[in-house]
Each structure stands twice: as C-alpha cells, then as structure tokens.
Design brief:
Layout: H1 5-16, E1 30-38, E2 41-53, E3 56-69, E4 72-86, E5 89-99, E6 102-111, E7 114-119, E8 122-127, E9 145-147, E10 154-156, E11 158-169, E12 172-182, E13 186-192, E14 197-204, E15 207-213
Antiparallel strand pairs: 1-2, 1-15, 2-3, 3-4, 4-5, 5-6, 6-7, 7-8, 9-10, 11-12, 12-13, 13-14, 14-15
Length: about 220
C-alpha cells in the first residue's frame, strides 16, 4: 500500500481550502458541502458555511479526510478556518489544522492597509488583496498569490480559464466555467453562472481526487 499520497493531498488542501478583495469577493451567504473521493472511493467531507453578522460576512470552512484499511487509520486530516469579511474585503483569518493528531494554528488580519499573518512560517506581511485558499468565491484570473491556510505562508499561483463546460450535478445539467489554478499542485475548479463553486479535481501522488457536490448549487455562497 502506498502511504506517501497524504502529503500531496495535504498540500492540495492548502491550495483548495477570490484572491482579490475587489468586488469579486463573495457577498451572499449560503452553505455548500462536498464529498471528497480518492480514486472514486470515499475519503471525507469539505464544507463552507457563510453567514451574515452585523453587516459583515463570516465564512466557516471545514475539512475532515481520512484514509485507512479496515479499523486502521493511516492518515487523518482536519481543518477549520474562520474568515471575516466586510465591504467585500477580508478583515481577519484564523485556521486550526490537524494531521494525524498534530495541530497547528495560523491567524492574522487587515492592519494598516496590509494583511498580516502569523503561522508556522513565522510572521508575514502581504498586500491587502491577498486572500486565503478557501474557494467559495471564484478567483480572478489575475491572481498571483494566496495565503496558505495550513502554514500562513505566501503561496504563489497562476490562474487560467480552461473554458465553459456542461456538468451533470445531482441529475441536473448546468453550465460552469472551468478554472485551473497552478500552485503547489494543479487544481481544477468549476463555478456556475451565479458564481457558485460546484466542482473540484486534482491529482496528488498519482491519486485522482474529486469532489462530489452534496448540496444544491443555489444554496452555496457566492
């Protein structure tokens, strides 16, 4: 059995877990949940819940992934991130990430016109428009960097439009824009015409990882 794949999956989740605080940033609350599959087999869940509090948005992103054989668990990854947004701009971010029982924390926010983060990579100052890798809002093509939600580090990326495609989700056909993000890994993302995140796929250590939407696209934040 190959046991190296979890490290690559861990890196991919840092890339997945909008990158401009300009008007592309999400403005509508909602909830979205995916089943995560590894080579077509259940691997875990990932969800995003965005709510409105006092005129601001709060986004809670959660992931719980597990790989094992029978009663034995070889890999367990959990993450919970909280984002606060106001007027289309990210104002704070905190994440707790656990891998096989070991936990780490990152935190930061907007201060003096820049994004200041503290994590396992130390303190880092980034431009105000640098956003976390949480994908509930569609990334602009001009995106060049993000905050790694596992470490708080700067994550250089390139974003490209692959094209408009027809997907079948929950027995319903819908048109979605296919976006490709190249960073630690290459991650493919799909968003419908309303900006709802509806699909995701990537390859890590030769393992094909796919997301299956469990909630209606119309319920998702955008």
């Amino acid at each position: 059995m190959r046991l190296r794949f979890p490290r690559a999956v861990f890196a991919a989740l840092a890339l997945i877990s909008a990158i401009s605080a300009h008007a592309e940033a999400g403005t509508l609350p909602g909830r979205i949940e995916f089943a995560v599959l590894r080579e077509g087999q259940p691997f875990g869940r990932q969800s995003v819940v965005v709510s409105e509090e006092g005129g601001a948005l709060v986004a809670e992103t959660s992931a719980d992934l597990r790989a094992g054989l029978g009663p034995l668990t070889f890999f367990h990854y959990v993450q919970h991130c909280t984002e606060h947004w106001r007027d289309g701009a990210l104002t704070s971010l905190s994440c707790v990430t656990g891998q096989n029982g070991r936990h780490k924390h990152i935190a930061g926010g907007l201060m003096d016109g820049v994004l200041r983060m503290q994590g396992s990579s130390g303190a880092l100052v980034m431009p105000q428009e640098t956003l976390p890798t949480s994908w509930w809002t569609r990334p602009p093509l001009a995106t060049q960097q993000m905050v790694n939600t596992d470490t708080g580090a700067r994550l250089p990326v390139r974003v490209a439009m692959v094209g408009r495609e027809i997907l079948t989700i929950g027995g319903v056909r819908l048109a979605a824009d296919h976006i490709r993000v190249q960073g630690t890994l290459t991650v493919d993302l799909w968003y419908d015409a309303a900006g709802h995140w509806v699909n995701c796929a990537f390859i890590a250590e030769g393992q094909h990882m796919t997301y299956r939407l469990l909630t209606a696209p119309s319920q998702a934040p955008s």
